[in-house]
Specification:
The chain is an alpha/beta fold. Helices cover about 25% and strands about 25% of the residues. The chain is built from 4 helices and 6 strands. It has helices at about 45-55, 90-95, 100-110, 115-120; strands spanning about 5-10, 20-25, 40, 55-65, 80-85, 110-115. It is elongated.
Length: about 140
Amino acid sequence: MNNIVPIIPICFWCAKEKNQIDLFKLKKNKKSEHIPRSLIIDYEPCDNCKLNMEKGITFIEATQTPNFEHQTEIMNNTYPTGRWWVVSEDGVKNMIGDAKIFKQILMWRKCYIDPDVAAKAFSTGEQNHDKAPSS
């Protein structure tokens, strides 16, 4: 059991520590003193971010290549930047002209968008989180 160490996960979406402790398995020949106390381990939002995301449709800025070293995909060829916005259903309806796309977005409750699209769509809007985490 000496190759397992406790860590406090950091929320990718707000960069704050989650209120939990996880066990992290070390790779062979890795010493525990080289492991930080806190670490981003997944894209699962913390309770606060989850509550905010549930208030509407979450638009997540994402690229097709990693934004920092060792970043994993959230889905195939999709790497979130850490910037996201929550928009009401009425707001999304005003933004999206295509009824089929609007219906899909409503069903999934989130939408991944390119940074250029995000810059145009949310140029005057306040971001929920504007700082990509560093690892």
